[in-house]
Amino acid sequence: MWKGRFSQPTSQLVQSYGESVSFDWRLFAHDIRGSIAHSKGLVKAGIITADEQAQIEKGLLTIQHEIETGNFEWKESLEDVHMNIEAELTKRIGPAGAKLHTARSRNDQVATDVRLYTRDAVDAVVMLIQSLQRALVEASERSGGAVVPGYTHLQRGQPVLFAHHLLAYVEMLSRDIARLQDARKRIDVMPLGSGALAGSTIILDREYVAKELGFAAVTQNSMDAVSDRDFATEVLFAIALCGVHLSRLSEDVILWCSAEFGFITLSDAHTTGSSLMPQKKNPDVAELTRGKSGRLVGNLMAMLTLLKGLPMTYNRDMQEDKEPLFDSLDTIKAALAVFAEMIAGMEVNETRTRAATSDPMLLATDLADYLVNHGVPFRSAHEVIGKLVAHSISEKVAFADIPLAKYQEFSPAFEADLFACLNLETALAARKGIGAPSPQNVAAQIARWKEALS
Ligand code: ARG
């Protein structure tokens, strides 16, 4: 492709060191789509005839079919997906094929291909996130009135509906979608026509080509266009954060299905056994997802580090953008798909959640609120209840079993109705402010998400 000025062949080591076709072959459909659109632009610019364009298009579609059916031979010596396809086209159709690369460089070509590929992949990831959201909303609905302790510092805090806990993840995932959709706006800009770095003296109707490729806009600076990988970096960040969210959910799932918590049971289909310990049922899917989230963070770091020292414009370093990008897209897609299945097969063990929420200490804050409602400043109320907690622990007597007269020794503001706030149902129903976990609120949130995800 560049043999004109060289008198020595490329070293075999350089060839295998520099090849990218072993991983960028997967851009083939987008590369061909880009080339067909470019060929139409060349007709409009008067560089090729409609007949030559038809030969190019037919040739490329035949090659695409052969690739799709496994009948195409990729050659390492042709370095990358772009040169493999172009060389094969020219071999087949001759001069028309040799005109295809007019006013184009692999620099704007690869930038275009990766944007087309990433745009499709982002749409697929968004759909998979929505499927997981749907599974979580359905699990919330199935969990009915199951109540669990809400934790801070992994210490029991206050009671919440299990559904409220699951819906927290639905919220996180909706922000992941919003980030991907926002990144998509910056993916959706066409670099083709920027040439190697300085456009071309052959003037193409870039807006026409962009329309052919479904791009919303064209880039406005040819140097930026060939050296910009911000769009891919943003996607890697959105995926890494989504992975971190899945990792946190994984950690919850792992805790919940431990014997110590026992809040949920995962289906046999989504757990694995031990080759040694016959009783084991392990949450490998969650553990693998927690582990794989490290890769997603690593891929983001790889991309940022790759770009940070690059002078303008294209540098070959940028070929290294693809493996982290592909790996993150593949990894998050697989994680989302398997997670949605696992959540769909998850069951709540109400005996265990009820046992955990029978801990009266979960309602200590409600008792403090009771005093506040009876005119006691919150800081004083907090101290009174703190002393009552100490009393309850040292005397081994639950809040419900402390007599009213004793309560009144701690604060004269206590009256007989204090016992009403020691009831879990009352305590939950009372949390009816926006965003709080009253059963009515949670039911409304489930309805809202079902509507939004339908
Ligand atoms: N395989 C290359 C990449 O992915 C394509 C662009 C090569 N351009 C060049 N001038 N060597 O970055």
Automatic annotation (TrEMBL):
Keyword Transport included in the entry's annotation: no
A GO MF label: argininosuccinate lyase activity
Major localisation: cytoplasm
Subcellular location(s) per record: Cytoplasm
Top-level class of the enzyme under EC nomenclature: lyase
Pathway of action: Amino-acid biosynthesis; L-arginine biosynthesis; L-arginine from L-ornithine and carbamoyl phosphate: step 3/3
Enzyme Commission no: 4.3.2.1
Keyword tags: Amino-acid biosynthesis, Arginine biosynthesis, Cytoplasm, Lyase
InterPro entries: Arg_succ_lyase_C, Argininosuccinate_lyase, Fumarase/histidase_N, Fumarate_lyase_CS, Fumarate_lyase_fam, Fumarate_lyase_N, L-Aspartase-like
One cellular-component annotation, GO: cytosol
Catalytic reaction(s) noted: 2-(N(omega)-L-arginino)succinate = fumarate + L-arginine
Xref: CDD domains: Argininosuccinate_lyase (cd01359)
Sequence ranges assigned to domain Argininosuccinate lyase C-terminal in this UniProt record: 362-428
GO biological process: one example: L-arginine biosynthetic process via ornithine
Residues of the Fumarate lyase N-terminal domain: 4-298
PROSITE patterns on file: FUMARATE_LYASES
The family this protein is said to belong to: Belongs to the lyase 1 family. Argininosuccinate lyase subfamily.
Entry-linked NCBIfam families: argH
Protein name as catalogued: Argininosuccinate lyase
UniProt organism field: Brevifollis gellanilyticus
Gene name per UniProt: argH
